[in-house]
Design goal:
4 helices; mainly alpha; single chain; 2 domains
Length: 101
């Protein structure tokens, strides 16, 4: 299958170097890495497509502060779960130590 070619001119040196380093980190040639970036980008909707999809959705009407309160509640629940898990873990260590004598 015939392949097209893309040449990008006037790439700032710091951007070129960052791409080169990232390609090396990923174990890829720069050409393969940039091609992968293009494939990933084209797999996402464009800004225009995203806004068009968004415009077809029903608006979400939440009372002021509802999202902030939901975040606070979720974080408090998470903190309680972490505290409970840590408390259980500390007790288990003491029981293990007592059994070992």
């Amino acid at each position: 299958m015939p392949m097209g070619a893309i040449q990008v001119k006037d790439v700032p040196e710091e951007l070129h170097e960052a791409l080169r380093r990232r390609a090396i980190q990923e174990g890829m040639s720069m050409a393969d890495y940039v091609l992968d970036l293009i494939r990933r980008d084209l797999g996402l909707p464009s800004r225009r497509e995203w806004l068009e999809r968004l415009a077809t959705r029903e608006p979400v009407n939440l009372p002021p502060g509802a999202v902030v309160q939901a975040l606070h509640d979720a974080r408090a629940e998470r903190d309680a779960q972490i505290a409970a898990a840590l408390a259980r873990g500390e007790g288990e260590d003491e029981d293990d130590d007592a059994r070992r004598g």
